[in-house]
From TrEMBL:
Residues of the Endoribonuclease L-PSP/chorismate mutase-like domain: 7-148
Entry protein name: Endoribonuclease L-PSP/chorismate mutase-like domain-containing protein
Record-linked InterPro entries: Endoribo_LPSP/chorism_mut-like, RutC-like_sf
Superkingdom field: Bacteria
Pfam families: YjgF_endoribonc
CDD domains on file: YjgF_YER057c_UK114_like_1
Amino acid sequence: MAAGRIEARLRELGISLPEAAAPIANYVPYGVTGNLVVISGQLPLRGGALVATGKLGAGVTLEQGREAARASFLNLVAQLRAACGGDLDRVRRVVRLGGFIACTAEFTQHAQVMNGASDAAVEIFGEAVGRHARTTVGVPSLPLDAAVEVEGMFEIG
């Protein structure tokens, strides 16, 4: 595997990763144990602002939710790059993603929202590495009134 393959893929997709965000409370952005990297939940920040605030089913559209999940995943990848010492080619597998969707009690399209993150994982890392296990749950609220938060677990080499 040539060095810089994932960075080249990001450029090809027109994706510029943000800087890895500092935690907003008393936790670390990621933990590495053995060959696993566990990344704390990332909000859908882009350029320092939330992509979507509020709740799905009450003003936030499915497309806005999907875009928020994608932005959250890109923030995960920024943390992952930091955990890998800047070398995303060390990523062997996207093991699991967890999605939290701020929504009304009646909202039931959580999976479609989370596809914004899952689709980005496959788009960036390819089918073999990017396909993953996943949990998606609806919650009454998230930090800073974010519409979506995504966490992840990755295998690195």
